[in-house]
Write a structure and sequence with these properties.
There is one protein chain. This protein has 373 residues and is of the alpha/beta class. Helix content is 23%, strand content 30%. It has 7 helices and 18 strands. The chain has a 6-stranded antiparallel β-barrel with strand order 13-16-15-14-17-18. It has a 5-stranded parallel sheet with strand order 3-2-1-4-7, sandwiched between helices. Helix 4 runs antiparallel to helix 5 (107-127).
């Protein structure tokens, strides 16, 4: 999908990685006047205090790489925007507060909503850019059925990032263009190599940008989110072991649980009680649920026309057929055709139609049984 008109100016989010770098090249090839934008979400000294374990985004080296590629490709402009304070309030505090109340957050979804496809759109308007682009593997396509531009799966199913864009504002969809949506990662690497881009072999970013060493336990402790050891209960309320603090666990987890004696079955975290700092564990079969409740709904289409969907409850989970029932403007119940493992409060339930168009999403607040009609 190319909506080019008279060399439109386009604002490209540049992380310093190979994907956004190749996106810059492809946009120039299509005739766009490309302006690069690099967000600094945390101060550089953040990475000096805690070195990266593996490659993550937003580090000082990423800033250097983004600047270098912008020069190499001769972009019309490139600038850096620091969002430290706002990022702390909207993303890091959300992350910490979620763990405090015993749920598992997804900071990347929130970051995309407020910054990559929130603040970036505002900046684009300020500089006169017609569109915002990025190196995400997702397609923004006009749907005759919905009479609107909607996101859909990228063709590279392994790299598809539509899940992470499910909470961006509906009104911004018309401003977005994703040149990598119909390409595979292997093709991106080949293009980068053919152009001799300095980032051609750069590893993909992993994990959370504000936890460079990937040690969320350390990060929570350093930010005073550490309840200390607590009790592990079985489904009957009997104490059968201990854990190192409820904030370090998520629904379905098995590792890190210390039992008083040998257990002859696989036990997973079934529920979390932040008030009493306890975990309830249950056998694997008890972790399969038939429904969920979600709030903080964000839809790209009219909700009253939606009934049968496929739903993904985390980035790497399989999409499952389901029906959706709206309780009010901000709460919905999703009932699956078959049970699904480890529905996790705090994660996002993301809804697609059968053709792969992204319809919307909601934050999971609880799991439950089959809806009684």
């Amino acid at each position: 999908m190319v909506r080019l008109l008279n060399k439109d100016k386009i604002l490209l989010l540049m992380s310093g990685g190979v994907d956004s770098s190749v996106a810059a090249y492809l946009l120039k090839e299509e005739g766009y006047d490309v302006v690069g934008l690099h967000f600094k979400t945390v101060p550089d000294n953040f990475f000096e205090a805690t070195p990266e374990k593996n490659k993550i985004c937003c580090s000082p080296s990423d800033t250097y790489d983004a600047q270098n590629v912008a020069k190499q490709l001769n972009l019309s402009d490139f600038f850096i925007v620091e969002v430290h304070e706002d990022f702390r309030k909207k993303v890091i505090d959300y992350f910490l507060n979620s763990y405090k109340i015993g749920i598992t957050p997804n900071p990347c979804v929130v970051c995309n909503r407020y910054f990559k496809f929130g603040k970036a759109v505002e900046i684009a308007k300020e500089i006169g850019a017609k569109y915002v682009s990025s190196g995400h593997y997702v397609i923004n396509e006009y749907s005759e059925h919905y009479n609107a531009f909607l996101l859909r799966h990228g063709v590279d199913s392994y790299k598809d990032q539509s899940y992470f864009l499910s909470q961006i504002h509906k009104e911004y969809l018309n401003f977005l263009y994703f040149p990598l949506g119909k390409l595979f990662k292997s093709q991106i690497r080949e293009i980068a190599t053919s152009l001799n881009l300095t980032v051609a072999n750069k590893p993909d970013s992993q994990e959370i940008c504000f936890i460079p060493d990937e040690n969320s336990y350390r990060f929570l402790r350093e930010n005073s989110v550490d309840p200390g050891e607590g009790k592990i209960l079985d489904l009957n309320g009997k104490v059968i072991g201990k854990h190192k603090g409820y904030t370090f666990y998520t629904i379905g987890q098995r590792n890190g649980l210390l039992f008083d004696k040998a257990i002859n079955q696989r036990l997973h975290v079934y529920s979390i009680d932040p008030i009493n700092n306890t975990l309830v564990v249950a056998p694997t079969e008890k972790l399969y649920f038939r429904s969920l409740i979600a709030n903080n709904l964000n839809f790209f289409t009219e909700k009253n026309s939606i009934k049968n969907i496929v739903c993904r409850i985390r980035k790497k989970s399989e999409e499952k057929k389901a029906s959706i029932f709206f309780r009010n403007d901000d709460t919905a119940e999703v009932v699956f055709e078959e049970p699904i493992f480890a529905i996790t409060p705090g994660q996002f339930a993301v809804f697609y139609d059968y053709d792969g168009f992204l319809l919307g999403s909601g934050e999971i607040i609880k799991y439950g049984e089959v809806k009684n009609e």
